[in-house]
């Protein structure tokens, strides 16, 4: 999926429709980034979406317990492998084996009802 950004000057690559991520929930999508295809975590609160690589900084495992299914509690995302606890808003680990480290953020924006990668994140 491709769509034009709000200025119409460059392409933003849509990874999924906003409605595909439940409000207050998360999902995983595969997207082509500068380093190749990666699994992304999309966390939604209303019209705001935060995106992170689906890689725990502790041991390099995916954070989902099943494809696209995440452990969420309050404003936290919990790694299904070793229990590291991350803030949904900024990706900072606040508990567990990688406390103080952060998930790698992926720049996103919502354009015309689609969650799009910021062109700076693309190859």
TrEMBL record:
Pfam families: Rieske. Residues 13-117 form the Rieske domain. Transmembrane segments: none annotated. InterPro entries: Rieske_2Fe-2S (IPR017941), Rieske_2Fe-2S_sf (IPR036922). This is Rieske (2Fe-2S) protein. GO terms for molecular function: 2 iron, 2 sulfur cluster binding; metal ion binding. The keyword Iron applies. Gene3D superfamilies: Rieske [2Fe-2S] iron-sulphur domain. Keywords: 2Fe-2S, Iron, Iron-sulfur, Metal-binding. CDD domains: Rieske (cd03467). The lineage of its organism: Bacteria, Pseudomonadati, Pseudomonadota, Gammaproteobacteria, Lysobacterales. It comes from the Bacteria.
């Amino acid at each position: 999926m491709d769509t034009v950004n709000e200025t119409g000057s460059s392409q933003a690559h849509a990874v999924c429709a906003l409605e595909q991520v439940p409000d207050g929930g998360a999902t995983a999508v595969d997207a082509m980034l500068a380093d190749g295809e990666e699994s992304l975590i999309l966390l939604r609160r209303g019209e705001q979406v935060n995106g992170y690589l689906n890689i725990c900084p502790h041991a390099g495992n995916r954070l989902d317990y099943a494809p696209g299914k995440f452990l969420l509690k309050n404003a936290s995302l919990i790694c299904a492998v070793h229990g590291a606890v991350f803030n949904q808003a900024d990706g900072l680990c606040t508990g567990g084996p990688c406390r103080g480290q952060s998930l790698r953020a992926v720049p996103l924006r919502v354009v015309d009802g689609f969650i799009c990668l910021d062109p700076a994140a693309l190859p």
